[in-house]
Amino acid sequence: MAAVAQSATIAVYSVKGGVGKTTIAANLAWCSAELSGHPTLLWDLDAAGGSGFLYGLEPHKGRQAGEIFSQDRSPEKLIRKTAWDTLDVLPADESIRALDAQLTAIGKRRRLAKLIESLATWYERVILDCPPVMNELSAQVIRAADLIIVPLPPSPLSARAFELVVREVTDNAKRHPPILPVLSMLDMRRTLHRQAREENPAWPVIPYASAVEQCAVQQRPVGAIAPQSLAAQRFIMLWRAIEHKLAQRG
């Protein structure tokens, strides 16, 4: 491939599981590739392997996804193509479970950032699907990211999780990346959800919708399944907000 323009890394991160993180990461990667035309890599850092599954991809055999951090192994060898020419996936496997210990042992605080930099020749956007942890891996994500997306289903626990993310981001980077909270799995039929929307009218929204659920069933992004749906339009709006944030980088 030819060299590309300035790259950016977008992390989808929460310390709480079950917030729609993987679905958001997978759909943002599609928006990046299809709507903006960016050569895009979706990098799954969660051992559950959801991002690869949502694109119908399985990791390479041999549990190698974690080895690229501790050994002289190129990430390129593990990258898988999708049905979209400008969108690739680096799937997770079980070896990712030991990644925090590996990163702590090698003592390189910007190992993830350096690996991403090595991919900048081919990818303008790297989307990180992050595990719900607070450890050395999450600290490395914060150091590598240009923008952090935090999915927040309307609940007191999500609000607390957001406070923890903000604290971790500010503690782990001198010039920390901006944080973009997103109301996820929003169901306007529910009082608590309506209140959350009223309290945060400027936040992007991803609705609770059957089109979003179909991503896992059909193993394709919402924009490919139901391009005219409200969910697809909301992902487009979120992506535009992300591009706007990235354009403001100094």
Automatic annotation (TrEMBL):
The lineage's top-level taxon is Bacteria
Which InterPro entries does the record cross-reference, listed alphabetically? AAA_dom, DNA_Partitioning_ATPase, P-loop_NTPase
Offer one Pfam family short name for this entry: AAA_31
Every copy of the AAA domain together lies at 9-169
The name of this protein is: ParA family protein
Tell me which species this is from: Novosphingobium album (ex Liu et al. 2023)
